[in-house]
Amino acid sequence: MGILIVQDNQPCDYLAAPHMVRTVKFLKTLAKGPTILSSDFIDAALDTGEVPDPDEFLLKDKENEKKFGVTIETAVSRARANLGKLLWTVPIYCTANICNGPDSYKAIAEANGAMFKLYRARSGTTIKPTTEEEDGGAPPEPVYLLSSNSAEERSLWPKFEEMARKGHMDPRIVAADWLLDVAMTQQVSFDEKYLARNFFDKGA
């Protein structure tokens, strides 16, 4: 039929989905800037044995566009402009015991160009100590730690904050939702609602 189903990490022209979803596959592929189609496109191709006109199957999802605060068209347009470098040079650490495991967040972060590392508060997972003067007087750059709310993870927060500040960086310990929403909107933004202390204490 002229349709090739590709594996993860391969270039693609289209992404077929039932609706906007914050899954690893959807967010990784969105970073490539494909045209997003309704999964009905696949059904129509299988039913007819022919390739349908993609323009007739563009995904429409007003409910989730409102939920995520971005239209599909805008997210795709930004992704094409970002060229997979939305989070280029942004350091993102992740606790080893985060809910659902770190691998999915690693895949999403790296698909968007981030520097992703596990944080266990051991030697070797450190930010080089740096003073403001050594940074040329520049303001501290943010560094993120993705964390859930277990007691074990919370015990790492003060150590991460100390490490970041010694490296003249601004520590932001956030729920993983921050990364998922950034990847969905294809725009780096920050709101204090994502800070772990706010996010989990309010049961967001």
TrEMBL record:
<protein>
    <submittedName>
        <fullName>BRCA1 C Terminus domain-containing protein</fullName>
    </submittedName>
</protein>
<dbReference type="GO" id="GO:0035361">
    <property type="term" value="C:Cul8-RING ubiquitin ligase complex"/>
</dbReference>
<dbReference type="GO" id="GO:0005634">
    <property type="term" value="C:nucleus"/>
</dbReference>
<dbReference type="GO" id="GO:0006302">
    <property type="term" value="P:double-strand break repair"/>
</dbReference>
<dbReference type="GO" id="GO:1990683">
    <property type="term" value="P:DNA double-strand break attachment to nuclear envelope"/>
</dbReference>
<dbReference type="InterPro" id="IPR036420">
    <property type="entry name" value="BRCT_dom_sf"/>
</dbReference>
<dbReference type="InterPro" id="IPR053036">
    <property type="entry name" value="CellCycle_DNARepair_Reg"/>
</dbReference>
<dbReference type="Pfam" id="PF16770">
    <property type="entry name" value="RTT107_BRCT_5"/>
</dbReference>
<dbReference type="InterPro" id="IPR001357">
    <property type="entry name" value="BRCT_dom"/>
</dbReference>
<feature type="domain" description="BRCT">
    <location>
        <begin position="1"/>
        <end position="59"/>
    </location>
</feature>
